[in-house]
Amino acid sequence: xxxxxxxxxxxxxxxxxxxxxxxxxxxxxxxxxxxxxxxxxxxxxxxxxxxxxxxxxxxxxxxxxxxxxxxxxxxxxxxxxxxxxxxxxxxxxxxxxxxxxxxxxxxxxxxxxxxxxxxxxxxxxxxxxxxxxxxxxxxxxxxxxxxxxxxxxxxxxxxxxxxxxxxxxxxxxxxxxxxxxxxxxxxxxxxxxxxxxxxxxxxxxxxxxxxxxxxxxxxxxxxxxxxxxxxxxxxxxxxxxxxxxxxxxxxxxxxxxxxxxxxxxxxxxxxxxxxxxxxxxxxxxxxxxxxxxxxxxxxxxxxxxx
Length: 306
Ligand SMILES: [Zn+2]
Hints:
By secondary structure, the chain is of the alpha/beta class. The protein is built from ten helices and twelve strands. Strand 6, helix 5 (123-130) and strand 7 (134-139) form a beta-alpha-beta unit. It is globular, with a radius of gyration of 19 Å. It binds zinc ion. Zinc ion binds at residues 11, 13-14, 16, 52, 54-55, 57.
């Protein structure tokens, strides 16, 4: 028997209560059978992902009641080789370049204190420091955080946005592929706002919820044995639309919000995959309103603290 679920009855973005099912998130945690048996007990169940009629945001209709479920899920015991390969991997370099370019355009040259939330193995910090930013990191996983600090020479603080405090210390805070993983995303945004000095900017990159759901459905048609897995194990709990992401940032006090198509990751794949990704991204950045279409597979948001 697993520890059960706690219902989530209100939209995390707008507090709306008209929530309808769009997907089911399945649990397969058998790999944790030895490391964490209570976690592995969730294998085989599923929980509906529901969409808010008022704002378009989608979220789980319930969360596992097992204490510290997400910390346990992310307590991966990675090998040294894997961590090093994550730092050296180039697959997110287009994303990192786009984030730095967006912040560079919004901040005067003298303001370059940056915190990367979810610093992982430190590749973004290293990239930012080479570009003249005074970059630091915040990372929950002790192994990747220690590696990031060692390889970049930058401070990489251990913890999450709720345990960390930095009163108005930074000019920029980045959350790249982080916010989709944390329940109650507005609490995260409100917390991060406190880390920013007045006039500082947040940069948030998340998957575009409706576009990713469509992509998964197309994949399932093209490859009959493929099963959509986006929300499995609740790895992704927050499924934003451009409008709901803007709403979340507005409600947490950010101003001058801009939402554009986010750059794609470039896996080291053969064939036309990389070219196709670049063409779709270029289209999503070029055509007016394309950020509201499935061409925008990722969303990149910026918001300013007054
Ligand atoms: Zn809502």
